[in-house]
Structure formats: structure tokens, C-alpha cells
Amino acid sequence: MAGAADIAVETAPLEWDASLWRTAIAQLEQALPHASIDPGTAERLRYPEHATIVSVPIRLDSGETKVFPAYRVQHSRVLGPTKGGVRFDPHVSLSECAALAMWMTWKCALLRLPYGGAKGGIRCNPRELSRGELERMTRRYTAELRGIIGPQEDIPAPDMATDEQTMAWMMDTYSMQVGHATPEIVTGKPISIGGSVFRNEATGAGVVMVIERACQRLGIELAGLRCIVQGFGKVGGIAAHELAGKGAIVTGVGDYSGGVHSGDGLELAAVEQWTAEHGSLGGFPGVSHVTNAELLELPCDVLVLAALEGQVTAANAGRLQARIVAEGANGPTTVEADAVLAERGIPVLPDILTNAGGVTVSYFEWVQDLGRLFWGREDIRTRLAEKMCDAFDRVWELSEQKDLTLRSAALVVGIREVAAALDARGLFP
Question: 127 φ, ψ to 5°?
């Protein structure tokens, strides 16, 4: 008869079992019946291979010592080294990193990149830290991950509140540890130390490549469509400019301070200048100011979700007035909201496909660093478009063949790629 201690162990939740992880698992479970893979292989896909928690102590400018919790999760390495961003945010958790790592696995497989998925981050408020404090924190985090990250093991990249400077500090710290310059340890770094042209624009540009391909499949002309972009940062800002460059009308954008809207279309250059000078959209003149929640429910043809996860839920999905929803962020639509949008006939261009431009050009950067041979901007844009359109077409065709949502089809395509590699390599020992 099992004792109380045994029962407690059997019923205790997994360390990463929280809301975002449950969303990732729910999506996986919905896709598995259509993937036709071995049950044992499916079981392996439900768990990350490695989950690491580290403490990052630094000395603040005030002289005080503060310790920040930090994480790195690697979901699958069957296709190659893991790949994924590093974020600095007060809400970073093991669960969040585990879910995002799983999604990155499907994303890389879908784009046929020789990577598995990873994600990491430090739980902090970067707005409260000086540049010197951010550097010390980044370098200590990198040092703590020695033996976990590496050019053939796990390759970090920028994510929320991190940028090419963060990657430069990580690259330098790792290089000093191994005794030689190792630009291929990270991607998204400055061009001067092995970064790639077009990397900063890649995710936002990729979002619009997918939107344009979807419009072609739906028989819609992108030029003239009215678009709203939630998030005016590294992804949303680029996506807004790319949409405008193709003749679409961007009527609304939002950031952490709220949204701005103009039925006649926004002057994006003026919006960008205002945010650069004031730090947010707050107070931008000559437009209507709305909350981020209200921004999502305004009439538009294309709604780009390029902010945070969990933005469209069962509570507001019925009020969206968009013809197409495009996910530039990771996990912005809940499982329940997906069902509502599918019932309403609103196609959702899923995150693991739509925002894959960043990791694809990160792959290009890694390849360039390994070969010490670099490509031009138009060459990279062309290669990216080929990858994104090929992945979209495979997803679209499966969606029509099996009568699946685009998200389920994208997951099935990615899962099948990973499962095939797992089956070929077998279970060790």
C-alpha cells in the first residue's frame, strides 16, 4: 500500500506546470491525433529535455547585492542544437520558458531548420536597471550557463527587453571563457562582431510575408487593407512599416502605454519619432487614444498581435472585428479563443509560422559565422521569403486536405518533422 509520501509525489504538479505550458500542451494534444505518430514518440514530445534554474547575483550601482532568478529550457535536440531567445522581464518563469521552448521546436521543424527549441530569461525589471547593471547581470547569467549553451549545444538570441548589445555581452563573456572569439555562440548580435544584415527586421518582415501569402491564397489584395498592430516594438514596428510599404493602411498601433487609432491611417514616421523622444505612444497628438484591450476590438481587415501572450481570450474573441489575425508574438491567442475564431470563420496565422522570420535569419547568421562568409541584405530577404512561403504553402495544403485550422496544420507539420527524426535515431540506450 502506497504511503502518504508516495501519493504526494504521484500527484505533485510538474515544476513547469502553469498556464502558458498548459496552453502549449493543449495545442500539442489537439494536433497529435492528426499527426499519426508513434505513442511513445508523442510521449517524449510532451517534456523538455533539460530545464535549468540558476541564481544571478550582481552588485548594483548602489553597492547592494541582489540575486535574480534565471532560467534556460531546452525542449528537443533531435534535429540539432537548440535555439531560442533570452528575455528580461518580471514575469519570466520556468513554465513560460518551457512553453516557449516547445513552440520553438515546432517552429524550427516547420521551417526545416536544423535546430530544436530553447528559451531562457532573467526575472527582473530591466527598466529599473542601469546599463552597467544590465551588463553585469547578462555576463553573470552567461557564465552560469557555461556547459549548457554552446555553438553546437544551444544558441541564444534576443527576445523581450534584450537586443544586439545584450548578445554582444553574451558573446564576449563566452569567448573569454573558451579563450577565442566565438561569434556563432549567439545570433542577433552587432554586425561588427559577426551579426547578419536584416536580422533586426527579420521577424516583422516575416510576419508580413506570411500575411501577403495568406491574402494571395484567400484571393484578397493586401494593398488597401486596413491593419491594426498591437505592439510597436521590434516586431510590430517593423511589421507596420512593411505593411505600409505594400500599400496597406495602418490605422492603429499600440504599446505598453495603450493604443492610438486614426481611421484615415497613421503617419508611421511621426509615431516612431514620438515614441523615440517620449518612450511610449502616450500623448501622441491628433489621434484617438484607446486601451490595448479596445485596440483589439476596433474594425480592421488584418489584426497583428505583436505584444504579449494571452491577448485574445474566450472573453474578447467574439468581439474582434478583423478578417485575418496574424500572430507576431508567441502565444497571443488562447486555446479557447482559437475555437471561437474558428467558429466565426476568422483565420489565425499561427505564431510558430508567422513569427518564424527571426529564427530563420538567426539560422542564416549562424551559418555565416560558422563559414566566416557573409551575405547581402537582398540575398537574405530572398532566402527568408522562400523559407516562409514554402512553410506557409505546406501548412495551407495540409489544412485544406485534413480540414484543420492553420494552427493545427502548422503544429502537425512541425511535429511530424521532429517525430521522424526521433524515430530514425531511436531511444538511447
Answer: -70, -20
Please tell me the distance from the alpha carbon of residue 46 to that of residue 346, in angstroms, as a whole number: 29
Cβ neighbours of residue 413 closer than 8 Å, sequence gap 6 or more = 109, 110, 391, 394, 395, 398
Single-letter code of the amino acid located at 301: D
Q: 119, 189, 234, 387: which is the annotated catalytic residue? A: 119
Superfamily of the domain at 202-354:
NAD(P)-binding Rossmann-like Domain (3.40.50.720)
User: Which residue ranges make up each domain of the chain?
Assistant: 47-182, 202-354
Check: CB of residue 338 under 8 Å from CB of residue 359.
no
Per-residue CA distances from 349 to 55, 164, 306, 310, 324 (Å): 37, 28, 12, 15, 8
By the 10 Å C-beta count (0-12 exposed, 13-18 middle, 19+ buried), 172 is classed as: buried
List the grid coordinates of 401.
Answer: 486536405
Residue range 47-182, CATH number: 3.40.50.10860
Domains 47-182 and 202-354 share a fold: yes
Q: Is 155 exposed, middle or buried, given 0-12, 13-18 or 19+ CB atoms closer than 10 A?
A: buried
Catalytic (active site) residue 119 = yes
pTM for this entry:
0.91
Over the stretch 151-193, which tens digit does the pLDDT of each residue have? 999 999 999 899 999 999 999 999 999 999 999 999 999 999 9
